[in-house]
Specification:
Shape: globular
Number of helices: 10
CATH architecture of the largest domain: 3-Layer(aba) Sandwich
Number of strands: 10
Mean pLDDT: 95
Largest sheet: 6 strands, mixed
Distance between the termini: 49 Å
Bound molecules: 4'-deoxy-4'-aminopyridoxal-5'-phosphate
Strand order of the largest sheet: 1-2-10-7-8-9
Length: about 350
């Protein structure tokens, strides 16, 4: 039976052999209500990935490349330091492929990230927040060395930027083939996205301006101070410009080695800082005015994209990366002010008709 409704779908036209094959091919979605009239804005919605973030790309790349090289043996434990999305992506990939996973994570990151990883079968070892990203990293390295585990090394591995070069960037090229693309806006955590996408856009779309952002109170690149590095390109010490910020997944307390290429090769035309609270504000606006549900880093990236849009020439096309879903921020500042009980307005609505009312508190 067919219905008379006009909206129909046809399926993806293929069967998937594993959840890991559903990573990537995320849609670029037009921003209709918030975008200034004189430009076209799109967001690349990485929350369409199976575990809800851009880091699913990194996870499948690290694991499959390590398998291919023989660095990861069947059933070997994988360990990584991660503020959450990489851990969730790795947990998804490791579950699908049968590797045990241990994640080290500072206790300052949202509770639901820990729970999600544990739900996906990973073990989460917390580290004190005072020891920052550097402490998480040290712990992961120690555990790997002590147990002969495979350390994923998201901040150093070449498999990070490569997957963005081969997937994220190619998707952007394909989706904007024959279209203008005046600006690409992104932030950085490991720097995988900016480095991989930068490599390709600089070659294939040299007219596209690339805008990079970082937290206003943690301007590691903006400070101009180089990162001290230790063994295997890992950070030697915490960067002096770092301050704790609410944009989870962005800017750790060091300049990652993966990001260094984007700095050295000038893969961005402008660096625009953004305050965390502004990111929160724009994440809410994207949800409430567009129905586009992204986390704080997505809101922060979009805040910068809006600044770019205001100044852009008429007809400009702007693409903004949205790294993850807003659903993993329920216990974070993103949801502050979103109450559990009824608001005054909701209570008044409830009382406005006689049936089915809650008792007065
Ligand atoms: N936003 C969030 C929420 C993230 O988890 C990450 C990855 N750490 C990023 C942005 C940045 O992506 P990348 O590591 O590719 O720079």
């Amino acid at each position: 039976m067919t219905s008379n409704a006009s909206r129909t779908t046809r399926g993806r036209g293929r069967l998937y052999e594993s959840v890991v094959d559903t990573v990537g091919e995320t849609p670029c979605i037009r921003v209709n209500n918030l975008a200034p009239e004189h430009v076209r804005m799109y967001v690349k919605a990485e929350f369409f990935n199976p575990a809800g973030s851009v880091k699913d790309r990194l996870a499948i790349s690290i694991i499959e490349e390590a398998e291919r090289r023989g660095d990861l043996k069947p059933g070997q434990t994988v360990v990584e330091a991660t503020s959450g999305n990489t851990g969730i992506g790795l947990a998804m990939v490791c579950a699908a492929k049968g590797y045990p996973l241990v994640v080290t994570m500072a206790d300052s990151f949202s509770i639901e990230r820990r729970k999600l990883m544990r739900f996906l079968g990973a073990r989460v070892v917390l580290t004190p927040r005072a020891e920052k990203g550097f402490g998480m990293y040290q712990k992961a390295k120690e555990l790997a060395d002590a147990n002969g585990w495979f350390l994923a090394r998201q901040f150093e591995t070449a498999d990070n930027a490569t997957v963005h070069e081969n997937t994220t960037a190619r998707e952007i090229l394909a989706d904007f083939a024959g279209e203008r693309l005046d600006y690409l806006v992104t932030g950085y955590g490991t720097g995988g996205t900016i480095t991989g996408v930068g490599r390709v856009l600089r070659q294939e779309r040299p007219d596209t301006k690339i805008i990079l952002s970082e937290p206003a109170n943690a301007q590691l690149i903006g400070s101009g101070i180089a990162q001290e590095r230790g063994a295997e390109s890992a950070p030697g010490v915490s960067h002096p410009a770092f301050q704790p910020h609410p944009i989870q997944g962005w800017t750790p307390d060091f300049i990652p080695y993966v990001l260094q290429e984007a700095i050295d090769q000038h893969y961005f035309d402008e660096l625009i800082p953004v305050p965390g609270p502004v990111g929160i504000e724009w994440s809410k606006k994207l949800a409430q005015k567009e129905g586009i549900f992204t986390g704080i880093s997505g809101g922060a990236t979009f805040a910068v994209a809006m600044q770019v849009a205001e100044k852009a020439a008429p007809g400009s096309v702007i693409l903004c990366m949205l790294p993850d879903t807003g659903e993993r921020y329920l216990s974070s500042p993103l949801f502050e002010g979103i109450v559990e009980g009824m608001t005054e307005e909701e209570t008044a609505l409830s009382r406005s008709t006689p049936g089915c009312q809650m008792p007065s508190p």
